[in-house]
Amino acid sequence: MEEKIELLEDGFDEKLVAIFSDPNFLLPNLLGAINVDFKENDFRAEIPMSLLFGKGTYVIYGKIMSSLSSVIYVINVAGYGPDKGGKIRIDLQKGKVTISISLSIPIEPINSRVIKSRIKEFKNKANELIRLERIKRKI
To answer: Distance (Å, rounded) from C-alpha 134 to C-alpha 128?
Structure first.
């Protein structure tokens, strides 16, 4: 599953690295994650999903790498081997945030629709979520 979204706002700049490198902000808002744990550059979270015979939760974990103008989340899905997981890359420029999502998830035909709807919802609310987070963090 590949998705790319662009967020445009005059106030966006590299200072947003602090917000996007926090999995407690990004993962719940972008993927609908719950129970996010974060220590140094490692994270762990649960993502509620659809399974073949009902609902379930996938545990994801990984590392966060950030620079002055980008943030990369390397994601693994627990219990599914190295072929399940992916990356979320956030590139920050003056006035523009580009989020590239590349994920391979279990039961992809069903679950990719769930993830894509969450990403679309995030895109619609992102400017307001970022504005509120900037106020909260005084950035």
So the answer is: 10
Handedness of CA 74, 1, 47, 107 (dihedral sign): negative
Q: Could you give the CA distance from residue 31 to residue 26 in angstroms, rounded to a whole number?
A: 8
Contact in structure between 95 and 9 (CB atoms under 8 Å): yes
Token couple for 20? 């996007």
Global confidence as pTM: 0.88
DSSP string, 28-94: HHHH--EEEEEETTEEEEEEEEEETTEEEEEEEEEEEEE-SSEEEEEEEETTS-TTSEEEEEEEEET
| pLDDT tens-digit readout, 49-73 | 765 556 778 889 999 999 999 999 9
The tokens of 77 are what? 């899905």
Q: Which of 109, 65, 68, 61 shows the shortest CA–CA distance to 86?
A: 61
Nearest-5° Cα angle at 116, 23 to 33 = 30
Phi, psi (deg, nearest 5) at residue 30? -90, -45
| Amino acid found at 30 | L
Indicate if the alpha-carbon torsion angle 92, 36, 74, 59 is positive or negative. Answer: negative
